[in-house]
Amino acid sequence: MKSQNIIIYTIAITIIMAISLNYLQPEPKATPEPTTHNQQITDSQILENLQNHPELKPYKTYDTKITHLSENNIKQLTEKQPAIYANLTGKNICKIEYTSASDGYLVIYDTEKDSILKQFRILNMQIN
Description:
Elements: H1 2-24, H2 43-50, E1 63-69, H3 71-80, H4 82-85, E2 93-99, E3 103-110, E4 115-123
């Protein structure tokens, strides 16, 4: 009877140790995805980056709307408003509209290059 108990205890302890070792091993670390230029930047990152551009400081309290533009969007917008959208090149182009009750500011921004491509002050008009 004692030998049966010893065997049962030995098996139980072995099982407990195997389970414990499984939980105590560190989880494999997830390798971060390599950063590519094609990754989409978040809207909050865009606004953070734009805070570093001195020409936009007067508009920091304005409401903002960010639109990520595809090549097709740019082609369609160029047909409607060539002065604003013509000759835009880049893969990560955004339109940022700063608006207040009285005026606004339109920025065409390349997120990949952290570069303002075009900018316009808007008085009492809407941008399509």
